[in-house]
Amino acid sequence: MTTIANNLHLIRSQISAITQAASRPTASVELLAVSKTRHADELRQAWDEGQRDFGENYLQEALDKIEALSDLEICWHFIGPTQSNKTRPIAENFSWVHSVERFKVAQRLSDQRPDSMEPLNICLQVNISREESKSGILPEELPQLAEQIASLDNIQLRGLMAIPASNDDPDLQRQPFSQLSELLKQLQKQLPNQPLDTLSMGMSGDMAAAIREGATIVRIGTALFGPRDYSQ
Ligand SMILES: *Cc1c(COP(=O)(O)O)cnc(C)c1O
């Protein structure tokens, strides 16, 4: 087996062990393979082992891979920064956007979503650790933004995404995830008619803590494909 195949099987068994230990239903956590900087051939190796969901951060790089892998049935997730002048290719090529933080962007994604496609699934990115440098809205801004976005035609508001401040302590890692989970519960009460079922949280370094706090999508790059090389 290739390294990627091996890693994939290992991550899957970790996810299922952690899910079980947390008394959560089997298959309640989906693995999103984060493939930024990786070559199309590496994604194909993961696809050959049954991986179908891939997450990309950079639009042009993503579009090149979508083209190169157009013979495969892949569910593409956009997880990088969203700019309002680059929404059309996102609306036309992706099934999910995890990183929405402005109404204007959501509105354009909705307007530009082709009628022939299913509504675009989106998550709102929350700056859960309140870091100056991080993308995302603050928790107190969530109710108003969610309310506005819920009214858009070609968008399904699915839930929340966060990248907490990094922390090596597994117990402290759980705090921001627990906060995000609480915010989703509040949102479900506020907007009972939206399909709010998604907590996109947990990466290679904090996947276990995120699953224990209710993650439904974990976004894994390094543990699957190895360390990234940004020099090329
Ligand atoms: C790169 C990235 C990941 C994957 O991080 P790893 O630590 O490599 O698993 C997950 N989510 C987002 C938004 C990312 O940009």
Automatic annotation (TrEMBL):
Domain of life according to the entry: Bacteria
Residues annotated as signal peptide: none
Matches recorded under SUPFAM superfamilies: PLP-binding barrel
Molecular function, one GO term: pyridoxal phosphate binding
Positions of post-translational N6-(pyridoxal phosphate)lysine modification: 36
Domain Alanine racemase N-terminal: residue ranges: 8-228
Cofactor(s) for this UniProt protein: pyridoxal 5'-phosphate
Keywords: Pyridoxal phosphate
Listed InterPro entries: Ala_racemase_N, PLP-binding_barrel, PyrdxlP_homeostasis
NCBIfam families per the UniProt record, alphabetical: YggS family pyridoxal phosphate-dependent enzyme
Similarity-based family: Belongs to the pyridoxal phosphate-binding protein YggS/PROSC family.
Function noted in UniProt: Pyridoxal 5'-phosphate (PLP)-binding protein, which is involved in PLP homeostasis.
UniProt-recorded name of the protein: Pyridoxal phosphate homeostasis protein
Native species: Amphritea japonica ATCC BAA-1530
Lineage: Bacteria, Pseudomonadati, Pseudomonadota, Gammaproteobacteria, Oceanospirillales
